[in-house]
Design goal:
Elements: H1 6-13, H2 17-25, H3 30-39, E1 46-49, E2 62-65, E3 70-73, H4 76-79, H5 82-99, H6 106-125, H7 139-148, H8 150-157, E4 160-161, E5 164-165, H9 166-178, H10 185-195
Helix pairs in contact: 1-2, 2-3, 3-5, 5-7, 6-9, 7-8, 9-10
Length: 196
């Protein structure tokens, strides 16, 4: 799933980070649009379409290398999919903050880790495994999936958590992690989704 934007695919193929951020920023999905806005501040991210790097599994649409800060997409079709690209950009945005948080990010990272453990436990009690729900693989995939996969967002919005839902707690923790103030459009949208 995810909107198809051929200009996004062209930007990925030509390794044009400003255009990638701009194309994501034009998305009709406000979460993907916000990823694009935040991505505009990233530096040193490279992109390419390279099926060989991703291995033989055709369900692996893309990847992000923490060691090279490079996003790989399997095909032009995958590179044109806003959700697929948004997932990989979410890794680029959040990985280092989760792995080595600054002092002002430590509380948000702790909340994300607790939320991930709670969510994983909830799914396990319901009989699901990490292989069935990709966002349960680890805390990094949890964040990237929750940021970019509408189906996963819907599931998280149905799980009660501390007088709200997992989705509501996730959105606030990520907003805090990335320094997004409550007055911005992303947080307002996410807060409204909590009320629906």
């Amino acid at each position: 799933k995810g909107a198809i934007n051929p200009s996004l695919g062209d930007a990925i193929a030509s390794n044009d980070w400003p255009s990638i951020a701009a194309e994501l920023g034009k998305s009709k999905n406000p979460i993907i649009a916000r990823i694009g806005q935040l991505a505009g501040n990233l530096r040193g991210v490279n992109t390419e379409i390279n099926e060989a790097v991703l291995g033989p599994n055709p369900r692996v649409y893309g990847g992000w290398s923490k060691s090279t800060n490079r996003i790989f997409m399997r095909s032009m079709q995958n590179a044109s999919n806003e959700s697929h690209v948004g997932h990989e950009v979410a890794h680029a945005l959040t990985y280092h903050a989760i792995k080595n948080p600054r002092p002002d990010q430590k509380a948000a990272v702790a909340r994300l880790r607790n939320l991930y453990r709670f969510t994983k436990s909830s799914f396990k009690k319901a009989g699901y495994t990490e292989k069935q729900i990709y966002g349960l693989k680890d805390e990094y995939e949890f964040v990237a999936e929750a940021y970019s996969n509408a189906d996963f967002q819907t599931i998280l919005a149905a799980i009660p958590y501390q007088k709200q839902t997992v989705w509501g707690a996730f959105t606030q923790a990520v907003a805090d992690l990335l320094g997004i103030k409550n007055s911005n459009a992303l947080t307002e949208f996410l807060a409204l989704s909590e009320e629906l």
